[in-house]
Write a structure and sequence with these properties.
Helices cover 51% and strands 8% of the residues.
């Protein structure tokens, strides 16, 4: 049974959608048709992530619709994989490994789910026992910008696009203190946990800003890390991915986000240049 070669563990709202498009354009890199499998968080933290089964089902259905859109050339392999991903079953490591059985031969196989950055040390230790040579990729973004972007996504998910300003600001202030909003930007903790379980040579960290400013350099660096040919990326590196709706947020509400991200922001300012792609 196949196993993944790499994981992109986030961060949420830091450029993983762009990275997924780049990976899918490379003939020697394989990722599943559903971008975020949400396996490890579903397996280890099922009570906190009850929505993961519905996520896989909904995205698998979209993948199937796309795979059969060309009636003259249906991608049956993609259909079968999407069915496997979307089936309403209790997931386990056998289920997860089977996903990678569908990968093309001799490809570098992996997936990305930003929620993996929220796993605790015990979970990560167990992952490393199953996949000791797994390569880990983390993309980090200014913690305040990342948090605001993540909260704006929540506003949309909660159908608050037409809500008045007071409702929006109350939502932002409340969300700013949520555990996952804070911990998604706690890069010091994320890096420390994964560094304890995986060899330092198997952990690569990028700045979201570099994905925008130096995309080609980032792809060349990633190619070295994954041991693939950087000249084979087919996607336009400067293409913009979908930008979600932007909500107007008051200064007081933004101030609440800033306050709760203070420790994360301090670490980011002190350490971000360590990860700059030159």
């Amino acid at each position: 049974m196949a196993k993944p070669d790499f994981l992109v563990i986030g961060a949420q709202k830091a450029g993983t959608t762009w990275l997924d498009k780049m990976f899918k354009s490379h003939p020697d890199i394989w990722t599943p048709p559903v971008k975020e499998l949400q396996f490890f968080n579903s397996y280890y933290m099922s009570e906190a992530f009850k929505w993961t089964r519905a996520h896989r089902k909904n995205h698998a259905l979209k993948s199937i619709e796309y795979a059969i859109s060309n009636k003259e050339n249906i991608n049956w392999n993609k259909v079968r994989l999407s069915v496997h991903i979307g089936e309403p079953v209790k997931v386990d490591y056998n289920w997860y490994n089977k996903v990678f059985d569908y990968a093309l031969p001799n490809t570098c196989k992996g997936e990305m789910s930003p929620e993996y950055s929220l796993l605790n040390q015990k979970h990560i230790n167990e992952i490393s026992k199953f996949y000791p040579n797994l390569k880990i990729i983390l993309v980090i973004r200014d913690p305040v910008e990342r948090a605001i972007s993540g909260i704006q996504m929540r506003l949309l998910q909660n159908s608050l696009s037409e809500a008045d300003q007071e409702v929006i600001d109350r939502f932002v202030i409340s969300a700013s203190s949520d555990w996952d909003v804070i911990e998604r930007g706690n890069y010091a903790s994320i890096i420390e946990k994964y560094s304890r379980s995986f060899d330092s040579n198997n952990l690569k960290i990028y700045l979201s800003d570099d994905f925008k400013a130096s995309p080609q350099s980032c792809l060349e660096s990633l190619s070295l890390f994954l041991q693939v040919d950087s000249s084979k990326f087919k996607a336009e590196v400067n293409q913009r991915v979908h930008v979600g709706k932007q909500f107007k947020i008051s200064k007081d509400a933004i101030g609440s986000v800033v306050e709760h991200q203070k420790a994360n922001s301090s670490w980011y300012k002190e350490n971000k240049e360590r990860f700059r792609v030159l």
